[in-house]
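Help needed: design a sequence for this.
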Protein backbone atom coordinates (compact mmCIF):
# COMPACT_ATOMS: atom_id res chain seq x y z
CA UNK A 1 0.00 0.00 0.00
CA UNK A 2 2.38 2.60 -1.19
CA UNK A 3 0.42 4.42 -3.81
CA UNK A 4 -1.85 7.35 -3.27
CA UNK A 5 -5.02 5.40 -2.77
CA UNK A 6 -3.31 3.01 -0.41
CA UNK A 7 -2.22 5.95 1.64
CA UNK A 8 -5.76 7.19 1.77
CA UNK A 9 -6.83 3.73 2.80
CA UNK A 10 -4.66 3.68 5.86
CA UNK A 11 -5.03 7.29 6.77
CA UNK A 12 -6.44 7.88 10.23
CA UNK A 13 -10.18 8.04 10.36
CA UNK A 14 -11.30 11.57 10.81
CA UNK A 15 -14.85 10.32 10.93
CA UNK A 16 -17.37 11.49 8.40
CA UNK A 17 -17.75 15.22 8.40
CA UNK A 18 -20.96 15.29 10.27
CA UNK A 19 -22.47 12.83 7.81
CA UNK A 20 -24.84 13.81 5.08
CA UNK A 21 -28.38 14.84 5.64
CA UNK A 22 -31.18 14.59 3.21
CA UNK A 23 -31.09 10.83 3.11
CA UNK A 24 -34.11 10.66 0.88
CA UNK A 25 -32.54 12.43 -2.06
CA UNK A 26 -33.78 9.84 -4.50
CA UNK A 27 -35.68 9.65 -7.73
CA UNK A 28 -38.66 11.88 -8.25
CA UNK A 29 -41.81 10.86 -6.44
CA UNK A 30 -40.55 7.45 -5.36
CA UNK A 31 -40.99 5.98 -1.92
CA UNK A 32 -37.59 5.45 -0.51
CA UNK A 33 -36.77 3.19 2.37
CA UNK A 34 -34.00 4.86 4.31
CA UNK A 35 -31.83 2.40 6.15
CA UNK A 36 -29.81 3.11 9.24
CA UNK A 37 -26.18 2.88 8.22
CA UNK A 38 -25.17 2.23 11.82
CA UNK A 39 -26.82 -1.16 11.52
CA UNK A 40 -24.46 -2.20 8.73
CA UNK A 41 -20.90 -3.38 9.09
CA UNK A 42 -18.29 -1.09 7.69
CA UNK A 43 -15.40 1.12 8.42
CA UNK A 44 -16.08 4.84 8.39
CA UNK A 45 -13.50 7.24 7.02
CA UNK A 46 -13.29 10.89 6.19
CA UNK A 47 -14.54 10.60 2.61
CA UNK A 48 -18.05 11.31 1.49
CA UNK A 49 -19.52 9.07 -1.20
CA UNK A 50 -21.21 10.16 -4.35
CA UNK A 51 -23.59 7.38 -5.36
CA UNK A 52 -23.97 7.70 -9.07
CA UNK A 53 -27.19 5.70 -9.44
CA UNK A 54 -29.23 8.39 -7.77
CA UNK A 55 -31.24 6.16 -5.53
CA UNK A 56 -29.41 6.42 -2.30
CA UNK A 57 -29.87 3.55 0.08
CA UNK A 58 -28.38 5.43 2.98
CA UNK A 59 -25.98 8.07 3.97
CA UNK A 60 -26.00 8.99 7.58
CA UNK A 61 -22.35 9.01 8.37
CA UNK A 62 -20.82 6.87 10.91
CA UNK A 63 -21.63 3.45 12.20
CA UNK A 64 -18.73 3.44 14.53
CA UNK A 65 -19.17 2.01 18.05
CA UNK A 66 -18.93 4.43 20.97
CA UNK A 67 -17.02 1.86 22.98
CA UNK A 68 -14.65 -0.06 20.68
CA UNK A 69 -14.07 -2.76 23.30
CA UNK A 70 -17.78 -3.57 23.48
CA UNK A 71 -18.47 -6.49 21.15
CA UNK A 72 -22.22 -5.78 21.39
CA UNK A 73 -21.68 -2.53 19.50
CA UNK A 74 -19.37 -4.12 16.96
CA UNK A 75 -20.79 -4.12 13.40
CA UNK A 76 -18.61 -7.09 12.43
CA UNK A 77 -20.06 -9.12 15.31
CA UNK A 78 -23.63 -8.03 14.54
CA UNK A 79 -23.43 -8.67 10.79
CA UNK A 80 -23.46 -12.49 10.80
CA UNK A 81 -26.63 -12.46 12.94
CA UNK A 82 -28.55 -10.85 10.09
CA UNK A 83 -29.44 -12.07 6.62
CA UNK A 84 -26.77 -11.97 3.92
CA UNK A 85 -28.76 -9.31 2.09
CA UNK A 86 -29.25 -7.09 5.14
CA UNK A 87 -25.69 -7.42 6.35
CA UNK A 88 -24.14 -7.33 2.85
CA UNK A 89 -22.43 -10.67 3.49
CA UNK A 90 -20.97 -12.25 0.37
CA UNK A 91 -19.83 -15.54 1.85
CA UNK A 92 -19.90 -17.31 5.24
CA UNK A 93 -17.01 -19.62 6.05
CA UNK A 94 -16.39 -21.76 9.11
CA UNK A 95 -14.37 -19.33 11.21
CA UNK A 96 -14.45 -16.25 9.01
CA UNK A 97 -16.75 -14.48 6.57
CA UNK A 98 -16.64 -12.02 3.68
CA UNK A 99 -18.64 -8.81 3.75
CA UNK A 100 -18.89 -5.66 1.66
CA UNK A 101 -17.43 -2.58 3.27
CA UNK A 102 -20.24 -0.11 3.84
CA UNK A 103 -17.72 2.67 3.31
CA UNK A 104 -15.93 1.40 0.19
CA UNK A 105 -12.83 2.95 -1.31
CA UNK A 106 -13.89 1.41 -4.61
CA UNK A 107 -16.82 -0.61 -5.91
CA UNK A 108 -16.42 -4.15 -4.64
CA UNK A 109 -14.34 -3.30 -1.57
CA UNK A 110 -14.58 -6.46 0.56
CA UNK A 111 -13.61 -7.21 4.14
CA UNK A 112 -12.60 -10.66 5.36
CA UNK A 113 -13.31 -10.99 9.09
CA UNK A 114 -13.05 -13.76 11.66
CA UNK A 115 -16.35 -14.30 13.50
CA UNK A 116 -14.52 -13.86 16.79
CA UNK A 117 -14.15 -10.35 18.17
CA UNK A 118 -10.35 -10.17 18.19
CA UNK A 119 -8.25 -7.14 17.35
CA UNK A 120 -4.78 -8.37 16.64
CA UNK A 121 -3.55 -10.67 13.90
CA UNK A 122 -1.42 -12.56 16.43
CA UNK A 123 -4.58 -13.47 18.35
CA UNK A 124 -6.01 -15.52 15.47
CA UNK A 125 -6.05 -19.30 15.70
CA UNK A 126 -4.32 -21.36 13.02
CA UNK A 127 -7.72 -22.16 11.52
CA UNK A 128 -8.65 -18.47 11.37
CA UNK A 129 -5.33 -17.47 9.82
CA UNK A 130 -5.81 -20.15 7.18
CA UNK A 131 -9.39 -19.28 6.42
CA UNK A 132 -8.84 -15.52 6.31
CA UNK A 133 -6.07 -16.20 3.79
CA UNK A 134 -8.18 -18.64 1.76
CA UNK A 135 -11.17 -16.30 1.72
CA UNK A 136 -8.93 -13.42 0.66
CA UNK A 137 -7.65 -15.49 -2.26
CA UNK A 138 -11.15 -16.57 -3.29
CA UNK A 139 -12.39 -12.99 -2.92
CA UNK A 140 -9.75 -11.86 -5.41
CA UNK A 141 -10.83 -14.55 -7.86
CA UNK A 142 -14.49 -13.63 -7.50
CA UNK A 143 -13.90 -9.89 -7.87
CA UNK A 144 -11.69 -10.56 -10.91
CA UNK A 145 -14.36 -12.70 -12.51
CA UNK A 146 -17.12 -10.17 -11.85
CA UNK A 147 -15.46 -6.77 -12.07
CA UNK A 148 -12.16 -7.31 -13.90
CA UNK A 149 -10.03 -4.95 -11.83
CA UNK A 150 -6.48 -4.22 -12.94
CA UNK A 151 -5.07 -4.77 -9.43
CA UNK A 152 -5.82 -5.01 -5.72
CA UNK A 153 -4.84 -3.53 -2.41
CA UNK A 154 -4.84 -6.16 0.32
CA UNK A 155 -4.17 -5.47 3.94
CA UNK A 156 -5.05 -5.00 7.56
CA UNK A 157 -4.81 -1.83 9.55
CA UNK A 158 -3.76 -2.87 13.03
CA UNK A 159 -4.76 -0.30 15.63
CA UNK A 160 -6.51 3.05 15.29
CA UNK A 161 -3.20 4.83 14.83
CA UNK A 162 -2.67 2.68 11.73
CA UNK A 163 -6.03 3.68 10.32
CA UNK A 164 -8.38 0.95 11.50
CA UNK A 165 -11.91 2.32 11.78
CA UNK A 166 -13.13 -0.64 13.82
CA UNK A 167 -9.82 -1.50 15.43
CA UNK A 168 -11.29 -3.95 17.94
CA UNK A 169 -12.38 -6.48 15.33
CA UNK A 170 -9.73 -7.52 12.85
CA UNK A 171 -10.64 -7.27 9.17
CA UNK A 172 -8.63 -7.75 6.03
CA UNK A 173 -9.33 -5.28 3.20
CA UNK A 174 -9.63 -6.52 -0.36
CA UNK A 175 -9.81 -3.40 -2.53
CA UNK A 176 -10.07 -3.82 -6.30
CA UNK A 177 -8.21 -1.17 -8.29
CA UNK A 178 -8.71 0.13 -11.78
CA UNK A 179 -6.53 2.31 -13.93
CA UNK A 180 -7.57 5.88 -13.18
CA UNK A 181 -9.78 5.04 -10.20
CA UNK A 182 -7.98 7.56 -8.04
CA UNK A 183 -9.31 10.60 -9.82
CA UNK A 184 -9.56 14.18 -8.70
CA UNK A 185 -12.72 13.70 -6.68
CA UNK A 186 -11.19 12.37 -3.45
CA UNK A 187 -8.67 15.20 -3.48
CA UNK A 188 -10.88 18.06 -4.51
CA UNK A 189 -14.21 17.17 -3.00
CA UNK A 190 -13.32 14.42 -0.49
CA UNK A 191 -15.87 12.38 -2.35
CA UNK A 192 -15.60 9.18 -4.30
CA UNK A 193 -17.84 8.21 -7.18
CA UNK A 194 -19.10 4.66 -6.76
CA UNK A 195 -20.90 3.41 -9.83
CA UNK A 196 -22.64 0.36 -8.38
CA UNK A 197 -24.96 0.04 -5.40
CA UNK A 198 -23.82 -2.20 -2.59
CA UNK A 199 -26.81 -4.56 -2.79
CA UNK A 200 -26.16 -5.23 -6.47
CA UNK A 201 -22.47 -5.74 -5.85
CA UNK A 202 -23.15 -8.17 -3.01
CA UNK A 203 -25.50 -10.24 -5.14
CA UNK A 204 -23.07 -10.47 -8.05
CA UNK A 205 -20.20 -11.56 -5.81
CA UNK A 206 -22.33 -14.05 -3.85
CA UNK A 207 -23.53 -15.62 -7.09
CA UNK A 208 -19.99 -15.84 -8.43
CA UNK A 209 -18.59 -17.32 -5.20
CA UNK A 210 -17.50 -20.94 -5.80
CA UNK A 211 -19.81 -23.17 -3.78
CA UNK A 212 -18.22 -24.92 -0.88
CA UNK A 213 -14.76 -23.53 -1.46
CA UNK A 214 -13.16 -22.53 1.84
CA UNK A 215 -16.54 -23.01 3.46
CA UNK A 216 -16.13 -26.66 4.33
CA UNK A 217 -12.75 -26.22 6.04
ZN1 LIG B 1 -16.63 -7.70 16.76
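Sure. Designed sequence:
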Amino acid sequence: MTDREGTTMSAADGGPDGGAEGTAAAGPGKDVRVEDSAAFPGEPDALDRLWTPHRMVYIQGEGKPDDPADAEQCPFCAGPGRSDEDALIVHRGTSAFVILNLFPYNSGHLLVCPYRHVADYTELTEQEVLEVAELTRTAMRVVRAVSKPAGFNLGMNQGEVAGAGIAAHLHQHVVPRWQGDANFLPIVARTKALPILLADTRRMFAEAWPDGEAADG
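The helical segments are 4-10, 75-78, 84-87, 126-147, 185-188, 198-208.
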